[in-house]
Amino acid sequence: MINQENYINNQHRYYTLDYYLKQKFNCKVFKVALNGNFSCPNRDGTIGNTGCTFCSPSGSGDFAGKKENSLKNQFNDICNIIHQKWHDAKYIVYFQANTNTYAPLDKLQKLFEEAISLDHNIVGISIATRPDCLPNDVINYLANLNKRIPVWIELGLQTIHEKTSNDIKRGYLLPIFDDAVKRLRNNNIDVIVHIINGLPNENKNMMLETIKYLNNLDIQGIKIHSLFLLKNTILGNEYLKNPFPMLTLDEYVDIVCEQIACLRKDIVIHRISGDAPKDLLIAPLWSLKKFVVMNEIDKEMKKRDYTQGCKL
Fold first, then answer.
1. Peptide bond connecting 41 to the previous residue in cis, omega within 30 degrees of 0
2. What sections of the chain are H helices per DSSP?
3. Is the dihedral of CA 59, 191, 102, 143 positive or negative?
4. Which residues does 206 contact at the CB level (< 8 Å), separation at least 6?
5. CA atoms within 13 A on the CB side of 95
6. Which are the contacts of 216, defined by CB distance < 8 A and separation ≥ 6?
7. Considering the domain boundaries, does residue 116 fall inside one?
8. What DSSP letter does each residue of 85-132 carry, written as one string?
9. Which of 123, 122, 74 is nearest to 97 (CA)?
10. CA atoms within 13 A on the CB side of 168
11. Which of 3, 130, 174, 179 stands 20 to 30 A from 193 (CA)?
């Protein structure tokens, strides 16, 4: 854990992923998003056939490699771009698109073993999945893999509130999430949680309650972003027919600042503003200016004299 003085010296008042990685590996580290051509039980009919109401038609893999390409070609294509600016970077291979533990164990072993062997500068593997897609045999394998290379599991929670969860068709109950976190942590696997601000009918207090709930769980990281309305999604189509209130930039900045102030100091903030494909985004258009959003949060944190966890 780093103290508040370190946050401020790092030009932020919160525990950033970049700072954490530089402290851990003593160099610049990038995540390289790979596409393992996974499906999702919320799309293939096992739980549902539409996905979550906000979910991109590509299944959250808009910035991952092309699934028709080999992992090696995906990795090389991305790294060739990175090397133009950072010649000595290290990498975390990131399985991003869809549900990346939703497959038989032998497929997972083949893909993950191949991924970590793509380059000698790979220092970790991050796997985005659902908490209801982590059977014990998969967790046992990931625990063994974690002894050889750091393993992060990213879980899409979005909200702790049951009504919102039902409305967005998340497809699992909160106790399933809690149990997945517990089983992962029993095996020393780091957990990063995704949450979304601005889900329909959620107010600021509800979004803060999600943060406060997570403070009581053994999680190591968090990703925060605003709700994106994308073309060809359930929520996007609803919005085009009957527009509903969306967070303004000022509202989003206010909420995130309060969330950071209420967040445990040891939790690494992997993201405070997300990326949406420009050609698919309906709203909010301010989210396209990612660095503006981040700068506004930094400015407001300083104005309020907030640091991460200062309200605990």
1. no
2. 4-9, 17-25, 71-82, 105-116, 136-146, 162-167, 174-186, 204-215, 234-241, 249-261, 290-304
3. positive
4. 159, 161, 164
5. 28
6. none
7. yes
8. T-TT-EEEEEE-SS-TT-S-HHHHHHHHHHHHTS-TTEEEEEEEE-GG
9. 74
10. 27
11. 3
Residue 312: inside a domain: no
Length of the chain: 312
Q: Flag whether 177 is in a domain.
A: yes
* Torsion 113-117-123-128 (CA) sign: negative
Cα angle 27-33-37, degrees, rounded to a multiple of 5: 155
Decide if 309 is inside a domain.
no
By CB atoms closer than 10 A (0-12, 13-18, 19+), residue 67 is: middle
What tens digit of pLDDT does each residue of 248-263 get? Answer: 999 999 999 999 999 9
| 23-61 confidence digits (pLDDT tens) | 899 888 999 999 999 999 888 889 888 888 888 765 555
With pLDDT > 70 as the criterion, what percentage of the chain qualifies? Answer: 94
Cβ-Cβ contacts under 8 Å for 269 (sequence gap 6 or more)? 14, 15, 16, 17, 221, 222, 223, 224, 260, 263, 308
Task: Name the token pair of 210.
Answer: 């999600």
Q: What is the CATH number of the domain that holds 20?
A: 3.20.20.70
Write down the pTM of the prediction: 0.93
Beta bridge partners of 16: 269
Report for 28-37, 182-191, 284-293: range of highest mean pLDDT: 182-191
pLDDT of residue 83: 73
The DSSP code for 267 is S
Neighbours of 70 (CB within 10 A): 13
Q: Hey, is 153 helix, strand or coil?
A: strand
Considering its fold, how many domains does the chain have in total?
Answer: 1
Task: Report d(CA 55, CA 168) in Å as an integer.
Answer: 9
Residue 32 is predicted with a pLDDT of 93
**Tokens 């967070």 sit on residue:** 247
Residue 148: give the domain boundaries.
Answer: 4-304
